[in-house]
Input
Amino acid sequence: MDEEQFEKIKEQVEKDAIVWELKMKSDAENGHAEFLKGLKDAE
Amino acid sequence: MTVTASGQITLSNIMNEFNPSGGQSNIKLGDYIARKPDDFGGTITMDILVTWDGTRFLFDGVGPSSLTSFFMAQGKETIQFRLNSSVNVPFYVATTQNTTGSDLASGVTNNGAVHSASGGAYSNGTFTFVTVDLATAAGGTSELILGPNFGNNKVIHINTNTQQTASGNNVGARFVSLPDTNRFVTRNLPYLDIALNSGWSGGNEATYTQTTPTSTNYGTIIKNGTSVVLRRTMDVFPIGGQTGGFAPTLFSPFLYPITYLGTGLGQGFNIGSGGYLQCYAYSGSGGNYISGGPNSAGSRPNTGQGWADYFRIGIQNWTGGSISTSGWGYSATNSGANLAVTITNNTGQDYALFDYNNSTMGQRIPFNSNGVDVNGNTLFLNNISYGSNSAYDIQNQNARYNISWNQNRYDGANLGTTTFALYDEPNTNRAAAVANIAQVINDLGFGGSSTFPGVDIGSGNGTAYYYLDAYPNYPSAGTVRIRRVSSATFYGAVGGQFLANAAGNPDVQSFFRGYATGPSGGRGCSNITGSNSYSTGVTTLSEGNGTVAIGKFNVEMSDYYGTRNLGSDGG
Output
């Protein structure tokens, strides 16, 4: 793989990371909401 | 010492230059004709461009003018006839002059070829090659014989299936196979010697090493059926942590299915649609989670060990993500705060793995997670100061190197930079590296790949680097000599000089750009470096002894103006 090829892949990863990190945030917040609900239910 | 470039020259001048112990009597000019440099036990190639003018073959633009026209070469040479697109008739190398394609000579490859524009074993679309071991094809060698015994010369004939003519007269071409004896004037063919580091140790792309990722060395491949261990020392979530605690999710590195373009990393690959996996380790109400503070009650305290315990004790599989969890395995172990998460790939496909960049800390981290601060905000570990000691299994590489050089022609004209690149076999030592460089230069065909592993050198016809000869372990073990072939048209008849490349970069570069950035020394490689030296520069045809006749025919004293002794290797 040459430099140019790798740079293209790297660019793709960086672009994807922006989108995915938004989705992760959403997933994490959903997870936390689930956790809080569990706490509340336990009370 | 150099023979004067003008004025009177004596036989003694020539003898003193080229054979100082020759004595002062019985000096024979015939002993001071030219020879090609030593072949060092390998092949010495002479390249000849062949064209067809419609009625006869031309050799480097010169055609036969009679039925007894001849050209000369040394029998020790391999003549590489390079047919261009004008050659639409068979090119026969024979032991007799005929128009039937008969009496074909031995020691010839691709005999009878017609130029092929579609490539193939001996073609690249531009040229088609016919190579001749001259002494074998001619049945030996002989000094040029003129006169009535002309037919006793050791020769090859170049025929086709019609009578060749010039201006209506029948013509034919032959090459006389000359010996290498009684020749004291060695012509210059420039060369480059590359001495590899004695400690040369190439890596192996089939192996992995736990490595701390850096800004220039990160990413790996997780092959189908294998696992990669992701390590990080966990820490106290620094921004308080929400009262009541939180349950982090562990996010895998970014994963991309890959399709290799060839047989190894060196040829590269394409990535498909990628994503990440996540493990929500929370085990339900009252179960596994991180409490609000280091000392507060709860499942796991907000400490490094608390986080590591949380991911080890919680759910042990990928619970979701942006790609299918099918075929992916998760397991975790810890020793105190040191967490090791193993990701296993049984998807049926190899994946490229890219980690996270924590620009706050100037570190790369192999997985991500999240906490919740006192204000209820979700924060990710790649954006805050948290944790230490990243490491994961980074794939090693075979040695890969570029050899580049610049060249001047015999008259000083610059010929630009040439680069020879090779991604080598696994685990090469110096001897193997030298042998492989020479093998690829000498044997690689257009149908093959220059990229190891696989040692795919095509049909071994040597047509890919047809302008170079390579000699392994010459002039000493661990060195490879790369020499330009003898050619009247390619770079000029003789002479010139190899130069360091114009950019001033090392002529041997060790680098890996297989799928991610990497250290200049190559992952898993050590000492894959080298040094280089060059033959003596030549700036005129005379300095390279190119004006001196190679056969005992039409030799003139003025041929020796400006000539000099270049030893037996022409350097």
